[in-house]
Amino acid sequence: MTAETVIGAVGRQAEFRTCQYTGLKVDTAAQTLIKANAVAAVVFLAIGGLMGLLVALTRWPAVHLLPADWFYLILTGHGANVLLFWIIFFEIAVLYFASAVLLNCRLATPKLAWLGFVLMVVGALMTNVTVLQGDSSVMFTSYPPMQAKPNFYLGIVLFAVGALIGCIIFFATLVIAKEEGTYEGSIPLVTFGALTAAIIAVFTIATGAIILIPTWLWSLGLISDIDPLMYKVVWWAMGHSSQQINVSAHVSLWYLIGALLVGAKPLSEKVSRTAFLMYILFLQLASAHHLLAEPGLDASWKIVNTSYMMYLAVMGSMIHGLTVPGSIEAAQRRNGFNRGVFEWLRKAPWGNPAFSGMFLSLIFFGFIGGISGVVLGTEQLNVLMHNTIYVPGHFHGTVVAGTTLAFMAATYLVLPLIFQREIVWPKLAKIQPYLFGIGAAGISLFMMGAGTLGVARRHWDITFSDANLSFAYSAGAFLMMGLNGIFAVIAAIGGIIFVLVVVGTVLFGEKIESGHKLTFPLHSGGGAVASHYGSEGTVKLPGTIILVGIFFVCFVLYYFINWKYLSELWLFR
Amino acid sequence: MAATPPEQRIWWNEPIERVELIWIFIAFLWGLFMFGFMIAWHFIGQQNLSKEAYRIAPTAYEQKVENFAKQFQVREEQGIPVVKPKPGADVYLLARLWQWWPILELEKGQSYRIHLSSIDWQHGFSLQPTNINIQVHPGYEHVISLTPTESGAFGIVCNEFCGIGHHTMTGKIYVTDKKQAAADQRLAEQR
Q1: B99 with B79, same domain?
Q2: Is the per-residue pLDDT at B183 higher than 70?
């Protein structure tokens, strides 16, 4: 059976070019699709990011920019545009890159890929238009019995179908590459990570269809009732898993950037790949951690789903948290930065936005997103922060300071290697990951702080000025929300610079001819074929051991601080 | 290379670094500990969310709350009854657009069976500044045994988005000291 019969398409003659930096064969059809998806991603990032700034300026008590109806409308749009459209468009680009480009293969059925792309664009626009028309301010979670207009759900369904087509094309390309023998042995680690992302995506999209299609029919009046608890159970199987696609995707990009910029190899393939497999096996269960404050679910069900299995997935992330900096340390020591414990880190290419963005993403994802996620997802501790602004604090740590920052970092490689344009305004590009990363980390931390002090999420006025029964949050909560506003402005400046640099580069960047020396250079061995293993010859990784040691101590301390808070609450059972 | 295939055809046969093994072992033990601690808290801790819940029609719940409020009402505040149930009693709290109804007056150190439900959208019960946060569903009656450990006036904030007036959706719980409560009762009897 040939690849063509497997995917039911007619074989095609692909056109290739050879990348002058990595030596990889690039299918031009795949290249165009990667460009299209990346451009769409950045467009939705720009829209969603601007909405995010408006949200933050409204929640900054001293500014309080938008009126209530606009605030909830914009907040709904913000969630859809950045959490879904920006991230998934970018992920489709990553899938095409990790299959066709990394495997030296032609992309399966580019025409079908374009159909998927069009469906995603139409779906995203439909949802945006519906939200902007009003009457669909149901938030990202869109919990019934609150109802949006039918096109809100339909747009998301169309978008998901398009994304599903992208995943299928990724799988088909892997099959073709195997059939045509474009690589030897196992697929590369980055492709392997992308494969886990795609598998999780298929599960996620299937779950989304199970819940969103009935909800759509309900909004059309064809189904009379959607049980709110059942909706949540199924919805979160999509909602949380969709964020695990991001984790797999951005961890893959950490490895990719490490490889291309400092020549990093995984310390060992077995460990890194097993860690990715743990995501597939266990991460789905983490969706239960959104249901810890619901009525009628058993404690043992909650504990098994959020903990035992989930901690194996947490272990997956903790493993990457060691192997990514470890492989960078090993590579840097091989590059000659061998003095002391931290010379490898000090002399890392911090001026290269791809590297700085990737490393900041690694730190913030681990320390802020990772630790807070475990605490938030602990059966009893959840009652301290369920639906407070701690929750957006946590997920801004994972999907903004983690995923979005990693995707931005990867963009600094996509521009020269796929768009073949030299990055314009390199000085702005250099500071961009720092501005955006520190801004995003600040947002996360201060929202978590405010949430610990009780501030509700998705709330227009924390002064309760129109309320019949008055209540006042502590002064500390107001301070936290103000700091959140300030860091949101910093992040927004970083985001605007990113969009300017990307648009400027795509439109006006100098065309890269052969022999061109990049402003942000790749490692000379970055495109080399497999060689020896990571830390061989430099077995010791003292710097990395210290870093993960600090991480572990922070994790344990923060975990117990929250139990202390919990033990001081009123008694309940 | 992370971007190129591994050296051996079968990645499972690749060697493992010792430092990785140690870290995996630590991470695994820590995961087991965290798992065990949640179970342990059901025995050593006093804060575990109830799993007692019933299906109920919103109108039926509304009726229950009104009967409850009529029975134990002691005064009125802003047009909302202030209700003072006996310690250990069943206490009904209703969430609707956009209020928590009625206002409760509880005694410190006494346990109450608090019933929570909504008659329209989903709402969020957020007791402040104590910071206890519980989701409230229409159609589901959630029963929680709650014991206030401090006295004073506490706010209930809705923390699940429920429409344009969401930010005005507040409620109140007064907690009185036992002594004070006993004194109040004596005063009432003398009158």
Answers
A1: yes
A2: no
A264 touches B at CB < 8 Å: yes
Q: CB-based contact (8 Å) between B56 and chain A?
A: no
- Residue B31 sits in the same domain as residue B61: no
| Residue A533 touches chain B, beta carbons under 8 Å | yes
* Nearest residue, CB atoms, A323 vs list B20, B51, B140: B20
Query: Residue A1: its pLDDT value, please?
Result: 40
Rounded to an integer, the average pLDDT of B50-58 is: 94
pLDDT cut 90: percent of chain B above it: 81
Which residue of A262, A531, A570 to mutate against B (max B Cβ within 10 Å)? Answer: A570
Rounded CA-CA distance A488/A221 in Å is 40
Binned at pLDDT 50, 70 and 90, residue B113 comes out as: very high
Same domain, B24 and B86: no
Alpha carbons A368 and A494: distance in angstroms, whole number:
19
Residue B105 and residue B31 share a domain: no
DSSP string, A201-247: HHHHHHHHHHHHHHHHHHHTTSS----HHHHHHHHHHHHHHHHHHHH
The CA distances from residue A128 to A45, A154, A163, A324, A561, in Å, are 13, 11, 17, 37, 41
Predicted confidence at residue A459, as pLDDT, reads 96
Going by C-alpha positions, the residue among A64, A49, A81, A74 that lies closest to residue A485 is A64
Chain B residues with CB under 8 Å of A295 CB are: 53, 116, 135-137, 140-142
User: What is the C-alpha separation between A464 and A486, in angstroms, rounded?
Assistant: 22
Q: What's the pLDDT at B186?
A: 63
List of chain A residues with pLDDT < 50: 1-10, 529-531, 535-536
| Cβ-based contacts of B5 with chain A (< 8 Å) | 183-188, 530
CA distance B62 to chain A (A): 18
For residue A312, the chain B residues in CB contact (below 8 A) are 31
- In this structure, the answer to whether residues B93 and B60 fall within a common structural domain is yes
* Cis preceding-peptide flag for A67 (omega within 30 of 0): no
- Average per-residue pLDDT in chain A? 92
Dist. CA B182–CA A114, nearest whole Å: 76
Q: Is the pTM of this model over 0.90?
A: yes
Q: What is the pLDDT of residues A471-516, one digit of tens each?
A: 999 999 999 999 999 999 999 999 999 999 999 999 999 999 888 8
Q: Is residue B124 part of a domain?
A: yes
Q: Cβ(A358)–Cβ(A258) under 8 Å?
A: yes
Residue A190 and residue A316: Cα distance in Å, rounded? Answer: 15
